[in-house]
């Protein structure tokens, strides 16, 4: 398994992987579709990054870092193929985000998630994320807000 920087040919897999997990648990929202249909324009060109997890050259997971106005980065669109859940791949993707944030001089990593996603919440907390008070968000599904300061 390897974690690589997003390249244009990963766009379809980034969309497919995220649509699969979001649609399984929630409803795809307008904000999701913005990023999924134009990851380069909506994430990378705005100072963010996307990492793809590859197994035998096949995309099996992904995560995005969206540049925030406060000097932080939002961890978003993180998912792993259903058949690789509980394999440690989510931890590898999150560690890549933590390392990238440090490389870029981020003040913090921030994320929004849902209280029904127990395994994800456990991973985030194990990797140093702390709960925050609720904030306004464009995502109807977001009811947990967390950050990991540097």
Structure description:
With 150 residues, this protein is α+β, with helices and mostly antiparallel strands. It has a single domain, classed as Gcn5-related N-acetyltransferase (GNAT) (Aminopeptidase, 3-Layer(aba) Sandwich), CATH 3.40.630.30. It is 34% helix and 29% strand. It has a seven-stranded mixed beta sheet. A hairpin with a 2-residue loop joins β2 and β3. The two termini are 27 Å apart.
Topology of helices and strands:
Layout: E1 2-5, H1 11-25, H2 30-37, H3 39-42, E2 49-55, E3 58-67, E4 73-80, H4 89-103, E5 108-113, H5 118-126, E6 130-132, E7 144-149
Parallel strand pairs: 4-5
Antiparallel strand pairs: 1-2, 2-3, 3-4, 5-7, 6-7
Structural class, from secondary structure content? alpha+beta
Span between termini = 27 Å
- CATH topology (fold) name: Aminopeptidase
The helix fraction, in percent, is 25-40%
CATH architectural type: 3-Layer(aba) Sandwich
Overall strand count: 7
Shape: globular
Sequence of secondary-structure elements? EHHHEEEHEHEE
Question: What's the rounded overall pLDDT mean?
Answer: 97
What is Rg? Answer: 14 Å
Strand content range: 25-35%
CATH class group: Alpha Beta
């Amino acid at each position: 398994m390897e974690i690589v920087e997003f390249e244009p040919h990963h766009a379809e897999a980034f969309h497919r992987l995220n649509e699969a997990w979001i649609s399984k648990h929630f409803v795809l929202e307008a904000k999701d579709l913005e990023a999924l249909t134009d990851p380069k324009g909506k994430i990378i060109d705005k100072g963010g990054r996307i990492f793809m997890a590859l197994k035998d050259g096949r995309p099996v997971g992904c995560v995005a870092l969206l540049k925030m106005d406060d000097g932080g980065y939002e961890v978003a669109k993180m998912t792993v193929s259903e058949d690789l859940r509980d394999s440690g791949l989510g931890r590898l993707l999150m560690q890549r985000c933590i390392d990238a944030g440090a490389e870029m001089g981020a003040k913090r990593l921030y994320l929004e998630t849902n209280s029904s996603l127990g395994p994800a919440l456990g991973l985030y907390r194990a990797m140093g994320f702390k709960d925050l008070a609720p904030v306004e968000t464009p995502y109807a599904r977001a009811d947990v807000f967390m950050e990991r300061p540097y």
